[in-house]
Amino acid sequence: MRPISITLTNFGPFLNEYIDFRNVHENQLFLISGKTGSGKTMIFDAIVYALFGEASTKGRKELDLRSHFADGKSPMTVVFEFKLGDSYFKVERQGAFYKEGNVSKTNGQLDIFQYIEDGYELRESKITAGNQMLKDLLGVDAEQFRQLFILPQGEFKRFLLSKSIEKQEILRTLFDSQRFEMIQKQLTDDVKESRDQIERNFDQLENYWHDIETFNDASLQEHKATPVRQTEQLLKVIPEFERTGNQLLEQLTKQQQSQQQQLESIQQQLEHNKQLQDNFHKLQQNQAELAKLNEREPGIEDLKQTLTKLN
After folding, report:
1. pLDDT tens for residues 252-300?
2. pTM > 0.70
3. 3-state secondary structure labels for all residues of 221-288
4. Is the separation of the CB atoms in 34 and 44 below 8 Å?
5. Which domains does the chain have, with CATH numbers?
6. What is the spatial distance between Cα 209 and Cα 211, in angstroms, rounded to a whole number?
C-alpha cells in the first residue's frame, strides 16, 4: 500500500489539514519530523483510523482522537487516498460523537471508493461491511497492520517480544505463506492416508499369512512364526511354501493318475465278471433245457420206431 493523500478534520491537533504524499515523488524513504506533541503520531493514527476505525497505538481510544479544539457541531473525519497494487482507493470515515444540544450520539459513517476510469465510484457505505472489505483488501487486521507498517514508539519492541504464535500469524500474512501451509497440509494428509493404507494392507496380509498352509512341514511351520511386518523375511520364505506346495501337488497328481488307472482296471474286471456271470446264467438255462430233452428221449425213440413201421 502506498499513501496518496490524507485530509484531517477535527482530528487530534488538526482542525483542517491536508497532506499530499505525492510530493515525495518516487522516493522510497522519507522522514516525518517535528517537535514533541506537534502531531507526528496523529498522522499515523489518522491512517490507521481511516482503514480500521482505531488508533495506531492499541491503548488510544477513538474518543481520544477527536480534537479538543473542534466545535460541538462538527464531526471528526478522515479522508485517506492510497494505492494498492494497480488500483486507487479513497476512504472517508467519520467518527461517532455527541453533537452539541443532542442527548443521543451521532453515529459514525464509512464510505469506500475505488477509482474507475475517470473518477471515484462508491464501493461500500456500511461500516461493518466496509471494515471487512478493507481488511480483505489489505490482507491484515488492525493489530497486524500496526505491527507490520506502523510500529510507533516502542511498538517494534513489542512485536519482537510478542509470542511466537502471534509473530507466525503476522509473518504468514506478510509473506503469503498460506499456500505453503496448504501444501504442507496436503502432504500431511497424503502421508496419513498412505500410512492408513499401509496399516490396512498389513491387516490384510496378517489374515492371509494366518491362513497360509504349512502342509504339516516343520520347516514351514517355523517360517510361519515370522511377524508379517518383517516383509523382507517373508519375501524370502514364501518361495519355500510355493515349492513345497508344488511338490505335494505333483505327488497327489501322480497318485490321482495311478488311482485312475486302477479304477479303470477294476471297472474292466467288473465288466468282464459281469459278462461271465451272464454266460453262466445262459449255460444254466441251456443245461435245464437239455435235461428236459433228455427226459423226453425215450418217447422220441418210440416215435421214431412207430414212424419206421408206418413207413
Report:
1. 999 999 999 999 989 998 898 888 888 888 888 888 888 888 888 888 8
2. no
3. HHHCCCCCCCHHHHHHHHHHHHHHHHHHHHHHHHHHHHHHHHHHHHHHHHHHHHHHHHHHHHHHHHHH
4. no
5. 2-176 (3.40.50.300)
6. 5
